[in-house]
Amino acid sequence: MWKRMVLSMLLACLPWSFCHGESPVPEDMGNLEKAGAALEKQEEKVPWFEIHGDYRWLYGNGRFRGKALSPESGAWKRQDEKVTMETRRFRLFPVLRLTPHLLLKTALEDNRIDQGPGNSHHLFLSRAYLQYENESLKIEAGRLNYYLMDGDLLDKKMDGFRIRYGHDDEGPGRSVFFYGRTTEDRSKARKVLVLENKRTLGKWLIHSAYADFRAIHGHRESIPVLSGFHLPSGKSGERFDRQQVGVVKGAYSPNEDWTFSVDYVLSHGYHEKDHFSETKPGYVAAAMYGEADPKRAGSYEVWVRYYHLPSSALLAPTMDADTTFFRRMGFSGWGARLDFVPVKGLVWALEGFSLKNRSSGIVTGDFHEYVLGTSVTAYF
Questions:
Q1: Which of 164, 240, 252 is nearest to 209 (CA)?
Q2: What confidence tens digit (pLDDT) does each residue in 148-206 have?
Q3: Contact 268/279 with Cβ under 8 angstroms?
């Protein structure tokens, strides 16, 4: 009955040249002018190919506790479950530059589950898209990954096209438009529209976004047995036919090490067969210190977050806790993470969450979730 936790600690990947390691330095460098001309000439050579990747081992434990009401007996019953996850993930990111401004980007992925629920997926093509980019414009089309608001709301593969225009620190900032659909089979897929704007003002960052997720096919009743008792699923149900989420992030960095941020969220969601609809606010407050750079041994990064979110705001988050466990009750609680680079190209991470439901449902009471996980990721 209870949803499993999903532990996934994603880190940015580091590019490296397929043939030469990092970009080689031309030998005919008599002065800076010649060096610049040589590098520019090298960049004009097309096509060229590069590849990078990562390998991650992950282990985590989750403890889930909840109370559910039996419609037949009218009694509340507590259930507890412990889940252990151990996974291995291997990814390759081949990139082919076709012209000075046009690239073909792909990703090959292999996921193995050694312990815990879920299915392993052997090597498959997880991303493939064309990218055109010049000084102020970037256009992407195909299967790509969309990462929004540090993954707290959205981190998911999409089929569609994305247009980015402008710069974070100039004029009105950088604007983004995306239209497409999620990559599940058609019975579960959703049409997606995302609009973004990001602007930096000195030590401040203002990032606003609007996302609209609409199911191509409406969902069935969440808890059909309740219909026999003339009871709605309400917050005890799950999923939405449509979710509309608006969010504004304000971030302040007093120096190179510290960043403080607050994401204010207003979301609307409805489920037709369940006759359920909600419009609720929420927020995520965060404090971050340092930067874990896989190229720099000894670097590290720490963050702490407090979550207070309605379920309608959760589009496809990459939180390393299972937010679907709370069904449509929303959740609040703490999360913390440490990333450390012991040697160049290797990152060790430790992460934990303590979450509870934000409200109760008609047949669901107090829900609590505790997650502790660790991972080691090697970049090449």
A1: 164
A2: 999 888 999 999 999 999 999 999 999 999 999 999 888 889 999 999 999 999 999 99
A3: yes
Paired tokens of 9: 């600690």
Listed by start position, the domains of the chain span 32-379
Architecture of domain 32-379: Beta Barrel (2.40)
State pTM to two decimals: 0.85
Query: For residue 342, how many other CB atoms are within 10 A of its CB?
Result: 11
CB environment 31-52: b (16+ within 10 A), e (fewer): eeeeeeebeeeeeeeeeeebbb
pLDDT over threshold 80, residue 40: no
> Among candidates 375, 363, 288, which has minimal Cα distance to 72?
363
Instruction: Count CB atoms within 10 A of the CB of residue 15.
Output: 13
What's residue 226's pLDDT?
A: 85
Characterise 87 by phi-psi region: left (phi > 0), alpha (psi -120 to 50), beta (else). Answer: beta
In a 10 Å sphere around its CB, with 0-12 CB exposed, 13-18 middle and 19+ buried, how is residue 322 labelled?
A: buried
Tell which residue, 87, 88, 127, has the closest CA to residue 108. Answer: 127
On the question of pLDDT at 27 being above 70, the answer is no
pLDDT of 165 reads 98
Mean pLDDT of the chain: 88
- Residue 121 phi, psi (nearest 5): -125, 110
Higher pLDDT, 241 or 11: 241
Query: pLDDT for 210-264, tens place per residue?
Result: 999 999 998 999 888 888 888 889 999 999 999 999 999 999 999 999 999 999 9
**Cα separations in angstroms, 59 against 74, 92, 119:** 39, 22, 16
- pLDDT above 90 covers a percentage of the chain that reads 76
